[in-house]
Amino acid sequence: MAPSLSVVVNGIEFDNPFLLGSGPPGTNARVIMKSFELGWGGNVAKTISLDHSKVINTNPRYAKLRDPDDDKKVIGFENIELISDRPFDTWLEEFREIKKRWPNKVLVASIMEEYRKEAWVEIVERVQETGVDAFEMNLSCPHGLPERRMGAAMGSNPEIVGEVVGWVKSVSKIPVWAKMTPNVGDVTASPRAAVEAGVDGLAAINTILSVVGIDLDTLRPMPTVEGHSTPGGYSGMAARPIALRHVMEIAKALPNTPISGMGGIYSGGDAAQFVALGCHTVQVCTGAMLQGYKVIKQLTVELQAVLEKHGYDSLEQLRGAALPYFTTHSNLVERQREAKKDLALERDASTWQGEIDKETDSLTAN
């Protein structure tokens, strides 16, 4: 029998831990229901707000960072896309229809509002009546609407995070997750504030504020819109090491809080790394945009293969397995001394002789 991928988070049962992350993969009812039909464990709908009229997107809105040795391979992805530009009432209707047709699939509503209690209270009260299973508070979008103190402009301030989470928890009847920004100095400050305010779970990370590149034919930044651009959110496989570090820090600091991990997940093996760092679920956005919704079959098979390799029957056995092995640099030195390694041989004067590529390889683990 294949290992089980089912998981329960905040009392919500998921067939598997793979959710489509908030963004284009959950941009309307049609595509959300398609994802459920194909086997995704859940879908975090594209972020909504009460007033869609202020949301105007551009075309183009994406730019790719390509492998210099293989132009077809995309290693990084930048977007300057805003939250949903569809009417709030339309979303309410579609949430009801989705839950009517797919009552056993997990639908998470991603919500974002200005720094006003009445706005957050209203959006929570109206959306939860549609039957959605949970909320994900978007406190982390790195671009767009900062003048309205939305997204990362809010989530980078722990005091405000605690206050706003408190507003939402005061009226929410369903679980609430707070989505964290990586664009901060202290990785754990805002997550701690959210947990202290009563949040039920955390999601990490949102995209990294970036400039993906300059077109050397035109000398204009990308994505180029009428000759100009603006910094946007960076995602894709090249962002995964940063996401893994953030998840690790959060999981160690807040071990009793469920985490939905994301950032550069393209394969089941990628997902397994997030689970090994303490995640209960994982979210895929850019990976699905570049590979299609059908990638879910590959993701589940590959994740099960990791569990089988280690003799695990469930994700619970994998969860957090790598966390105990993070320590300080001084402790690493002490461990090597105890192992009777001759550290003197690794002094810079003897290691680096001028064949830097070969010498780099001699110090590399993989």
UniProtKB/TrEMBL annotation:
InterPro entries, alphabetized: Aldolase_TIM, Dihydroorotate_DH_cat
Transmembrane segments: none
GO annotations of cellular component type: cytoplasm
Key words of the record: Oxidoreductase
Record protein name field: dihydrouracil dehydrogenase (NAD(+))
GO aspect biological process, one term: uracil catabolic process
Source superkingdom: Bacteria
KW Hydrolase (keyword) present: no
Name of the top EC class for this enzyme: oxidoreductase
Reaction it catalyzes: 5,6-dihydrothymine + NAD(+) = thymine + NADH + H(+); 5,6-dihydrouracil + NAD(+) = uracil + NADH + H(+)
A family per Pfam: DHO_dh
Entries under NCBIfam families matching the protein: PRK08318.1 (NF006183)
The Dihydroorotate dehydrogenase catalytic domain, residue ranges: 5-307
Quaternary assembly: Heterotetramer of 2 PreA and 2 PreT subunits.
GO terms of molecular function: dihydropyrimidine dehydrogenase (NAD+) activity; NADP binding; uracil binding
Oxidoreductase in keyword set: yes
Physiological role: Involved in pyrimidine base degradation. Catalyzes physiologically the reduction of uracil to 5,6-dihydrouracil (DHU) by using NADH as a specific cosubstrate. It also catalyzes the reverse reaction and the reduction of thymine to 5,6-dihydrothymine (DHT).
EC number(s) stated in the UniProt entry for this protein: 1.3.1.1
PANTHER family: DIHYDROPYRIMIDINE DEHYDROGENASE [NADP(+)] (PTHR43073:SF2)
